[in-house]
Amino acid sequence: MPGVASNRANRRPTGFTLVELLVVIGIIAVLIAILMPALRRAREEARRVQCASNLRQIAIALNSYANENKEYYPHCASQGIGHTSEDWVWWQPVQDINESQVARYLGARADNLQTLLRCPSDELSIHQHPGRIPYFYSYTLNYMLGTDNTGDLPMGDRKRSHVHNPSGKILMVEENGTTIDDGRWVWAGDSNDMASYHDFSFTNQHARGNCSFVDTHVELVARQDAYTPHYADPRVN
């Protein structure tokens, strides 16, 4: 049957050849390589926004505390000084997180409260320091706005109403998990201890981290700026 033989000869094989499959796989690999950084940045941007939201809510809560306590903020929750009832966060193992001074102003308890106190980018497993109790939260209070003493009033001139330029003074920061060990941020110390998980553009001192300000707004601030009196010292303009 000449016609049948001719039809069989004209048929083309179905599916991809090995070379075509390799070309397709190569194209997919290139697309993944191009898209992955963008997807990673998009995911981290979403985490940064959530972290900023956490910091803003905490800043509002701290200011609500100040409204009811003669313009003073709560204590810093320092590991070195020890626990006081006025600590902004009750974080040590024997303490009930729900009794934190900030808790009732946040309107959250238990797991919901702990979620608010943690940045979604923070790796809690690295919050380990020899001889220190791990601090399993992400945010710390400017030591010049809180206090570490056990008296009735904070040390020195710490009233919110006495803060120079409230919109330019840092109230809280998201601290790096490799250095954070309590609820107190000593900006005059190691200038690498502000977290920079969300910043893809800079490194080291130029890296930026989330900070909340006395007026409760939140922004990314460069480390080299955050550790200056202009940003962190409530006594200067």
How is this fold's topology laid out?
Elements: H1 2-10, H2 18-68, H3 103-106, H4 110-116, E1 139-142, E2 170-174, E3 184-185, E4 208-213, E5 218-222, H5 223-226, H6 229-232
Parallel strand pairs: 1-3
Antiparallel strand pairs: 1-2, 2-4, 4-5
Protein model, in words:
About 3% of the residues have low confidence. Helix content is 33%, strand content 9%. The termini are far apart. It is of the alpha+beta class and 237 residues long. The chain has six helices and five strands; from the N terminus they run H-H-H-H-E-E-E-E-E-H-H. A hairpin with a 4-residue loop joins strand 4 and strand 5. The chain has a five-stranded mixed sheet with strand order 3-1-2-4-5.
Question: What tags apply to this protein structure?
Answer:
alpha+beta, 6 helices, 5 strands, 237 residues, 5-stranded mixed sheet
